[in-house]
Design goal:
By secondary structure, the protein is α+β, with helices and mostly antiparallel strands. 32% of the residues lie in helices and 15% in strands. The protein is built from twelve helices and 13 strands. The chain has a six-stranded antiparallel β-sheet with strand order 2-1-13-12-11-10. Strand 11 and strand 12 form a beta hairpin. The chain is globular and about 65 Å long. The two termini are 16 Å apart.
Length: 317
């Protein structure tokens, strides 16, 4: 813990003034060169606190996009368009040549938890640039039975975007505009597409830190925003319900369990959206708080950022 954190942390019975609350974390970020660009802290019933180390510009939030896709699935569930137990093949027609071996057993919850068993993960250039990624995914044989093996996959989350498009006749991004983005005051978010024009879903959503923070606040408030239920509260609960968690096999404690588009954190009850290079929505129900972080940290594990938050900020909340 940094020296600046010591005075505040030795008297936790006395509230830390808002003007000092982020100071120990900010100092740790600078001392350890953690590449953080912005911090935004929301606490129930208190004024929001924020600090920007650089100008606030729209950035790729990388795999935080997966969490937004999971929210889209919840909205679709609330509208009766689909159910997590639905079979994928009931929503997406067979490609030319038919489904790959085992694909008929994949359910939407397997895509949400990245346990579909598909070897098409969507990271190789020939997959990312494929003219019909949907057909590639559907026509490829599984390498594991659905639900038996976890593997980080852009491909699985992309298929959820495709299911929503098939059910609604719109790209997922456009369908979400009046349902999620506009209610949160996010008026023209850019979300990259595949070569054939489908919202990526798994990555490439571009937001400013303040916009991202509104999504974090929405999750803390169980889908409610300014009196309107934007995402069903039961769905927010389902994202991190005990039944949703799957073991990843990762030795890093922060990456040990994955839910419906979100990760379990080591502090009890905490969970997060997590994108490459240090994009985080840290939902802290016990503290009735959510911390939004945007970063660009290369060459080191982003666990250094999480560790800084747990040591420098969490004890003060």
């Amino acid at each position: 813990m940094s020296p600046a954190a010591t005075p505040a942390s030795t008297s936790l019975d006395a509230p830390v003034p808002d003007s000092l609350l982020l100071l120990p974390l900010r100092q740790r970020i600078l001392e350890k060169d953690l590449g953080v660009r912005a911090l935004h802290l929301h606490r129930a019933g208190r004024a929001d606190l924020e600090h920007r180390f650089v100008d606030d510009t729209a950035e790729n939030v990388f795999s935080v996009s997966k969490t937004v896709t999971a929210l889209a699935v919840g909205i679709a569930v609330g509208e009766g368009l689909l159910d997590p137990e639905d079979l994928l093949v009931d929503h997406l027609a067979a490609p030319e040549g038919g489904y790959g071996k085992g694909v008929e057993k994949v359910r939407l919850r397997h895509l949400l938890t990245m346990t579909s068993g598909s070897p098409v993960l969507g990271f190789l250039e020939e997959q990312r640039d494929h003219p019909d990624l949907t057909s590639l995914l559907l026509s490829t044989d599984l390498v594991a039975d659905p639900g038996t093996r976890w593997e980080y996959s852009n491909g699985s989350i992309f298929l959820l975007s495709r299911v929503i498009t098939e059910r609604t006749g719109q790209s997922m991004r456009d369908w979400l505009m009046p349902r999620l983005f506009e209610p949160l005051g996010i008026l023209n978010p850019q979300w990259h597409t595949t070569r054939d024009g489908h919202t990526w879903g798994a990555t490439a959503l571009h937001l400013k830190s303040g916009q991202l923070a509104r999504i974090g606040r929405l999750m803390l408030q169980r889908g409610e925003h300014e009196g309107a239920q934007v995402v069903p509260s039961a769905w927010i609960d389902a994202l991190h319900a005990e039944a949703a968690w799957v073991a990843t096999g990762d030795a890093e404690p922060e990456n040990a369990r994955y839910g419906y588009g979100i990760w379990q954190c080591t502090p009890e009850g905490a969970w997060r959206a997590d994108g490459a290079y240090g994009q985080f929505l840290l939902v802290l129900p016990a503290q009735q708080a959510v911390l939004t972080i945007t970063s660009h940290l290369e060459g080191r594990g982003v666990g250094a950022i999480l560790g800084a938050v747990w040591e420098e900020l969490l004890p003060l909340l």
